[in-house]
Please model this.
Amino acid sequence: MNKLNRLNFSGGPGALPESVLLQAREALLEVPEVGLSVLGISHRSDWFAAVISELEANVRKLLGVSQDYHVLLLQGGATQQFSMLPMTLLRGETHPADYLHTGYWSGKAIPEARREGPIRVLWSGEADGFRRLPGDDELPFSPDAPYMHYVSNETVEGVQFHRQLGRDDVPRICDMSSDFLSRPCAAEQFAMIYAHAQKNIGPAGVTVVLMRDGLLRDAPTGLPGFLDYRRHIETHSNYNTPPVFAIYVVLLVTRWLMNEIGGLVPMDAINRKKAGLLYRVMDASEGFYRGRAETKDRSLMNVVFNLPSPEIEKRFLAEALAAGFSGLAGHRAIGGVRASIYNALTLSAVEEFAGFMENFQRGQKG
Amino acid sequence: MNKLNRLNFSGGPGALPESVLLQAREALLEVPEVGLSVLGISHRSDWFAAVISELEANVRKLLGVSQDYHVLLLQGGATQQFSMLPMTLLRGETHPADYLHTGYWSGKAIPEARREGPIRVLWSGEADGFRRLPGDDELPFSPDAPYMHYVSNETVEGVQFHRQLGRDDVPRICDMSSDFLSRPCAAEQFAMIYAHAQKNIGPAGVTVVLMRDGLLRDAPTGLPGFLDYRRHIETHSNYNTPPVFAIYVVLLVTRWLMNEIGGLVPMDAINRKKAGLLYRVMDASEGFYRGRAETKDRSLMNVVFNLPSPEIEKRFLAEALAAGFSGLAGHRAIGGVRASIYNALTLSAVEEFAGFMENFQRGQKG
Model:
């Protein structure tokens, strides 16, 4: 793998494992089992049916959920789920759904839900600049809510929940776009989990939805076919032409997770080590690197920090880029620096970057 | 290119040009201008902004339209457009939109439109098994329709309009999913054209929409963001993370069309030659190959035919596959044989297949 790919700290689309890229590259000309380019294989072929079937099974196995969970591969990103979910579970409801506003992305979900039905924003971190997440004592979840929605990891601000939230008698629904399959997640406690692929599990253009069977029991009919989860369930994600290539790459990533990494427990251990390295440099920097998030809510995926001044931040980003570390500029909404260390970014790449951070700080003092 | 890719007659996702596959393959590890895998480049990068900008310009140039036309790259396929279009232009209308029912795919668009507002099916070929298309004298277009919608090429039945339809004072809207950029199309006469990529212009997962500026003037607000054309126009198709890889491949295909083929006029000439070869074999076969479509309405993209019996059809498909020709089974809705000869399928591949058809027929007689 070239150095730039190895040191790609992009917030997303993010880096993918080298072995996955190599297999995807080969498939561009010839999928081994078929002999055709992956871009020219029919979505109605036996091969693609087997891809979907293996991918569904792999996701269930990695998360430890049973056949009671449907695994869907949809288009439109988390953004489409922001609408599709309330179109399905909120229209016509009298009790509001509970939504948490913990950062940029959960803030995008809220107005889309509001178009479709009543919601209550249970907690918002907006006044604090989304630097911390709420404790359980700040979250009076309603027993009457049709569902409760939150975002497990906020990529922009770098805050992440390290527990699951909510009540067992209200459907728990989580946008895990930026930490799905990065750690075990007690998936059986969720009614629905969704995640676009372009952080940990594949290229942009496909979204995984995990849904407990029965969640749609009272859902309205009459939605356009492509917005109706039922159609996608019935057809095993082949209602209309799915993004074959993106789905194939997600399959390759699940194989990598299972066969090369050994599942979500070892993946989590690696991710903790990676994040730990960077947070240790930050904590040892005597305020030179100022982490954005409160310590207890720090993200294992997105390490977001500021330097003493915008000028020094600019120099940091320029020198990092010159050294091969790319994708480090903070999200356009807040600036600063963001090191995204998704699954595919290796421990050694993070070690190199930690070393760079230390050297850069030393250079500023000299 | 291997033989299977060269002889891929799939109805879609279809074959792509060899030079495009080779460049896409290289980009999987390293986009030349960037050094990163195309799967790991941010959709907010300068590189991707340049991809979108060049692609918009290429589509306009190939079709000969001005900046008055927006070029959008969306997800969800033609299926999403079946709904997005009437959500935008039909909700709240009292006059019905005119829809033509000329085959399997236009038949999918109709119920989705009906959910959103009043439509009138101006003509249906259903009783005739969609073997022919209507003449102008059978099409009393309404001057009061909010728009008129038709499908230029029906991939399942193999019928194609060889003129544009409708009135100049009613927005003319066409699903060109299976013949977009296969021939010149007087695009300035259309208010909107849409086409998913996976026939002539790229991989599954992206849809091109060409829209005349001003068409949305009276469109309702309040749609979910991802279903609102305005959001996609304002952001140059970067409202939420777009399918970067699929869009990049479409760019490569437009470059191929412009630089290797020389534009839509020569592309059309090649496509006519290809279709002509197969229809000539059919016409000379004394009824052995029975074309499905009336001669005047034959598709240049999908050559659909039957053989004397289902058994002979089965043998034909098996022998064709053994000889390397794949993707020839007719659509599951109607069976038979379908040779899809999209842009990327070469004249020499079609010559080989024409030879195979002649030989097969001779073999049956012997």
Notes: The mean pLDDT of chain A is 96. Residues 264-283 of chain A form the longest helix (20 residues). Chain A touches chain B through 63 residues (CB under 8 Å). The CA atoms of residues 82 and 349 of chain A lie 34 Å apart.
